[in-house]
Prior knowledge:
It contains three helices and nine strands; from the N terminus they run E-E-E-H-E-H-E-E-E-H-E-E. It has helices at about 50-55, 75-85, 150-155; strands at about 10-15, 30, 35-40, 60-70, 90-105, 110-120, 135, 165, 175-180. The model is unreliable at about 25-30, about 40-45 and about 180-185 (pLDDT under 50).
Amino acid sequence: MTLFPELPGKTFSIIYADPPWDYRGQRQHNGRGGRDTGGADAHYPTVTLGDLKELKVGDIAAQDCLLFMWATSPHLDQAIDLGKAWGFQWATVGFVWDKQYVNPGHYTMSQCELCLIFKKGKIPSPRGKRNIRQYVNEQRQAHSSKPVEVRNRIDQMFPMLDKIELFSRETLNGTWTSWGNENLQGR
């Protein structure tokens, strides 16, 4: 059995990824004695860091390429490790998303998620807008779905470049290519 579908046979200047991080079956609970609110593996198949590193993302990266990668707080170190394993250098935090919803955490209540930026070569060109805001304040929707506004902002930054969304849940149009495992239903 193949874990992932085959990657496209072309390169992209912008790669946008929301890896299905493995939480080792960890569940979320709604407070002490509260009901189980699920975990990632209740919604879609999760993938270990080792298996994610095997994905040849560097092969579809153009000479000058940016990788925008979503990382939950418990996976920040893994996300940076994964970006490097895919052939990119750590650059910065691209977007901070306030989900307007609080999840219980082991240390503090969790309500923000980060979209990290990694770079291969130079910042790709041509560029569009350079004054895009980092902060996104949009209410969380279905489990693991990301705000469309982030993809829109990436489009404003790089309107002419070919882009791919890895682990995509929908068919995209325009300069975007969708790639994902059809078994990631409901993600």
